[in-house]
TrEMBL record:
It comes from the Bacteria. This is Inner membrane protein YgaP. Residues 17-109 form the Rhodanese domain. InterPro entries: Rhodanese-like_dom, Rhodanese-like_dom_sf, Thiosulfate_ST/Rhodanese-like, YgaP-like_TM. The gene is ygaP_3. The keyword Isomerase does not apply. The chain crosses the membrane at residues 122-143, 149-170. It comes from Stieleria bergensis. Keywords: Membrane, Transmembrane, Transmembrane helix. CDD domains: RHOD. It holds the Pfam family Rhodanese. PROSITE patterns: RHODANESE_3 (PS50206).
Length: 184
C-alpha cells in the first residue's frame, strides 16, 4: 500500500511562487466560500471522484496534487482516496486552511458560515438535550436511548475520525452553493 506525502503551508507557498501548483480544497462549498487559499479550487470530499479529478488535470497527472481542508483530517481521507484509486504524487497540506491563514498567506474571503464542526456540535447537543428532557418529562426510559445513541455516535466519531452526522450535514442545502461564489 502506497502512502502520500505531507507538506507544510510555508513549503507549499514557496513552491507556488516558483511555479504553478494544483491545490484542491475538499471542504464543503460553503466552507470554501467563507475562506480558502487563493490558488485552491473546491472539490468536496463527499463527492470526490479521484479518477475524474485526475482526468481533468490536462496531462499534468504526474505533477503533485496538493490536498487541503480546514485542519488536515478530511484532506487525509481525500489523499487516501487517490492512493486507493492507484494515483501517486498526492500531497496532504499539514494544518490545512487554518494553518495557511495563521501563516498570513493569501486567502480569498467570502460570506461567513457556521463550520461543519460547529453544526455537528449544535445538532448533537440539541438532539441529546431533547431526548433527555423528553425522557424526564414523560418518565419513559426508552426515550433515554436518544441521548445514548448520540453519545455512542460521538464516541465512534472520536475513535474512527469519521462522523456520520457531519457527512449528513455536509449534504444539507445550507452547506451547498447555488451560485458561482463557491468556485475558484
Amino acid at each position: 500500500m502506497s502512502s502520500f506525502l505531507t507538506i507544510s503551508v510555508q513549503q507549499l507557498a514557496e513552491r507556488n511562487q516558483t511555479g504553478k501548483t494544483e491545490v484542491i480544497d475538499v471542504r464543503t462549498p460553503v466552507e470554501f466560500r467563507e475562506i480558502h487559499a487563493s490558488m485552491a479550487r473546491n472539490v468536496p470530499l463527499d463527492s470526490l471522484d479521484a479518477k475524474n479529478v485526475m482526468a481533468q488535470r490536462n496531462g499534468s497527472a504526474h505533477e503533485p496534487l496538493y490536498v487541503i481542508c480546514r485542519s488536515g483530517s478530511r484532506s487525509t481521507k481525500a489523499c487516501q482516496k487517490f492512493i486507493d484509486a492507484g494515483f501517486e504524487n498526492i500531497v496532504n497540506v499539514d494544518g490545512g486552511t487554518t494553518a495557511w491563514e495563521q501563516a498570513g498567506l493569501p486567502v480569498e474571503r467570502g460570506k461567513k458560515a457556521i463550520s461543519l464542526e460547529r453544526q455537528v456540535r449544535i445538532c448533537a447537543g440539541l438532539i441529546t438535550l431533547s431526548g433527555s428532557v423528553a425522557a424526564i418529562i414523560t418518565g419513559n426510559v426508552y426515550l433515554a436511548a436518544i441521548p445514548a445513541f448520540i453519545g455512542a455516535g460521538l464516541t465512534f466519531a472520536g475513535i474512527t475520525d469519521t462522523c456520520g452526522m457531519g457527512m449528513m450535514l455536509a449534504k444539507m442545502p445550507w452547506n451547498q452553493c447555488r451560485d458561482e461564489s463557491c468556485s475558484a
